[in-house]
Every structure is written in C-alpha cells, then in structure tokens.
Amino acid sequence: MPALVAPSILSADFARLGAELDTIASADWVHVDVMDGRFVPNITIGPLVVEAAKRSTKLPLDVHLMIVEPDRYLEDFRRAGADWITVHAEACTHLDRSIQAIHATGAKAGVALNPHSSEQPLDYVLETLDLVLVMSVNPGFGGQSLIERVFPKIERLATAIQKRGLKTLIEVDGGVKPANAQRFRDAGANVLVAGSAVFSATDRAAAIAAIRG
Ligand code: DX5
Ligand code: ZN
Description:
Blueprint: E1 4-7, H1 17-22, E2 30-35, H2 47-56, E3 61-66, H3 74-80, E4 84-88, H4 95-105, E5 108-113, E6 131-135, H5 151-163, E7 169-173, H6 181-187, E8 191-194, H7 196-199, H8 204-212
Parallel strand pairs: 1-8, 2-3, 3-4, 4-5, 5-6, 6-7, 7-8
The chain binds D-xylitol-5-phosphate and zinc ion.
C-alpha cells in the first residue's frame, strides 16, 4: 500500500520558505516540527511560521507539537492553520482531555510516542484518535538514523487498529528515506514524515514518489 508523504520543513531553508514549499507540492501533507527547548533540547518555530506556511501551500498542515503543556497553545496553532495537531503522550498528564481539546478546535487529533514509550497508554483513547505518530528517532533534531526497535510497535499498533475496525492513521517520523520506506509501509505505517531525505535530494519530487511507494 502506498503511504502519504509528509515532508518536514525542519530541513527546509526558512529564508525562502514559500519557494521551498513549492518544491514539495507533490507531497500529501506538510509536517511542521514545533519544539520548545523544554520537552526537547531544540527550539524551532511557533504559530507565526505556521501561519506563513499556510499562506504558501495548499497542502494540509500536520503540526507536531514537541512542547510541554501543549493544551495552552492548541487554539493558537489551529488559528494559524494547523489541520492536524499532534501532542506527545509523554507531555500530557490528562491525555484524554488534550485529545478532546484538539477536536474542539476543529483539527484532527494525533498522539505521538517517543521511541521508549509503549503503545499501551493509548489503549483507552485509540477510538478517539485520528492519528498515532510513532517516533523512530528521539525527537529534537532532523537527520538522525532510525531506531530499529520501533518496528514491532508499528506492527502492534496496526494490528490493534485493524482488530477494532478503526480508521486511525499510523504516522512514522524520523530517519525515513527512500531506501527504508517500504519497511515502514510493510509494518503498517500510513503516513511517512521525511525531512532531510526530501530536502537534501536534488530531485525532491522523485524522493517523495520513492517514499510514497
Ligand atoms: C524530529 C522531528 C522530525 C524530523 C525528521 O524531532 O520530529 O520530524 O524533522 O527529520 P529526518 O527525516 O531528517 O529524520
Ligand atoms: Zn516531527
């Protein structure tokens, strides 16, 4: 099964964001990595840049919040143009409440799991989720190598989603490239995020097509 491809603008040239977005117009979504320097060591972008990206692309914006207390900013990111909002399970004490709060903004709701996190805490919220984001690197930076140990987690989630007859999408983020994309698709991933593999490619459309499968 082909996957949806979501290039991460973390690896784009922010001085020319509009032109960079034009080069990935053949993708399915645009992945936006929001980092606060607290949940992860790095600091990246906020609603202002999301709003600028929204004006520069027709693709849905897939906003990945790697921040503590994400509930405080859900409305801001939705207003800026986020179509999908994903929070980290590890950052939410009241995960069910955060998912409800995302839906209340009108956005699709996702929950991300760090490489060390079990899918078990999603057991009682899976029905309410539009997306589960499986991190295949430790979040914070682009260009890292994938952690092989995440494959069984993707498979277990895919089985659980299928058994319950849900439409929840599985997204994988970190170290995805044309050479390994098929392994993620075979494990059950529906959406593949790729930052460095797309933006460092000389032919970005070809990289997107190869990752899609
Ligand atoms: C990592 C981010 C990823 C990252 C992926 O913290 O969530 O989206 O940009 O980058 P690559 O594809 O280069 O591993
Ligand atoms: Zn991401």
